[in-house]
Amino acid sequence: MVIEARNVVKHFGTRVAVAGIDLAVPPGICFGLLGPNGAGKTTTLRMVYGVTRPTAGSVRVFGIDVAVNPRAVRSRLGVTLQQNVLIEALSPVENLRVFGRYHRIPHDLLEERVEELLDFLELRSHAHVPVKQLSGGFQRRLAIALSLVNDPELLILDEPTTGLDPAVRLAVWARVRALRAAGKTILLTTHYMDEAQRLCDRVAIVAAGKVLAEGAPEELIAIHLAREALECECDENEVPALLDGLPVAHVLRTADRLTIYADDVASVAETIRLRDGGERRVMVLRPANLEDVFLALTGSTLEESQT
Ligand SMILES: Nc1ncnc2c1ncn2[C@@H]1O[C@H](COP(=O)(O)OP(=O)(O)OP(=O)(O)O)[C@@H](O)[C@H]1O
Ligand SMILES: [Mg+2]
Q1: For burial by CB atoms within 10 Å, which of 69, 84, 116, 187 has the most?
Q2: Are residues 212 and 203 in contact, defined by beta-carbon separation less than 8 angstroms?
């Protein structure tokens, strides 16, 4: 395992940020930590890269106990924090050089890496512009580039695409996939369920410092819900009659909408149509997704804060 966390706990005074988390991340996969605001994702990442000491439990990275030898671990990983850490007065090239020298990368090798990373994260057009003049998307890409300067075996990304426009998000996803294809291990957090479903081989859904479910996205969808979802408009008082006798795996009620999960929603929709008689009810049939699992497990959307 690249990362092995056993019953990790973190208290801040009386506040329990992480309440006993186990994680096992094998090499070469992209692993996602998902959860509402305040769930303990960033705190967990901080314990993995050794800047926060667990109150209890242990974290091993590359087989090394992080609390015992944080330096040995940190030299082999790269981190992109939730908030960018950039030297604002300097350009991307200069930032990359400063980070490279911090990692004691020999001059010629560093120049090579800087060139590679400028291309890899499409920073070349603004390579010599002071960071403070760059847009948020450029700054985020530079932050990711900096975390790659030491050619890490493990890359930790805390909300890599929050605040990015759709095109830049797609570009960042492509880079994450390329890194994974090159054999890197990636641990990321995200509030975007579509991102998690597309990028992650495995995810852990975390709430209130605990792992609620862990597995491959498709596996979690199959275990916790069903293959397909049917969204339909429905008044509160209609629900019992509407659902009566239907082969339904799970039901979720939000505002004016009922979402029914079943392995074959087409036949469920057909039954509802027959029961409705001539009346046309708006129904949407779609595959079930990770967002549905998240809602079913946490009872909230990711955008709703639970702090
Ligand atoms: N240094 C700290 N001192 C006190 N409390 C803290 C500290 N860091 C985190 N916390 C608390 O620990 C809990 C978990 O915070 P954490 O930042 O790990 O959540 P998160 O899952 O990353 O949330 P978000 O999605 O908003 O980034 C929160 O209740 C937070 O207020
Ligand atoms: Mg966080």
Answers
A1: 187
A2: no
Nearest to 283 by CA among 234, 219, 242: 234
Ligand nearest to the CA of 307: 1
Q: Which stretches of the chain drop beneath a pLDDT of 70?
A: 300-307
Fold of 226-287: Alpha-Beta Plaits (3.30.70)
Q: What is the 3-state secondary structure of 89-158?
A: CCCHHHHHHHHHHHCCCCHHHHHHHHHHHHHHCCCHHHCCCCHHHCCHHHHHHHHHHHHCCCCCCEEEEE
CB of 281 closer than 8 Å to CB of 233: yes
User: What's the token pair of residue 12?
Assistant: 């801040």
Give residue ranges with CB within 6 A of ligand 1. Answer: 12, 15, 17, 35, 37-43, 82, 307
Structural domain spans, the chain: 77-151, 226-287
Which residue's CA is the nearest one to ligand 1's atom 5?
Answer: 12
Helix, strand and coil content of the chain, in percent to the nearest 5, comes to 40, 25, 35
User: Which atom in ligand 1 lies closest to the alpha carbon of residue 46?
Assistant: 18
Residue position matching structure tokens 């992480």? 18
Record the pTM: 0.92
- The per-residue pLDDT for 301 is 44
First-last CA distance in the chain: 32
Instruction: List pLDDT tens digits, range 65-109.
Output: 999 999 999 999 999 999 999 999 999 999 999 999 999 999 999
Q: Which atom of ligand 1 is nearest to the CA of 13?
A: 4
Backbone angles phi, psi at 10, to 5 degrees: -140, 120
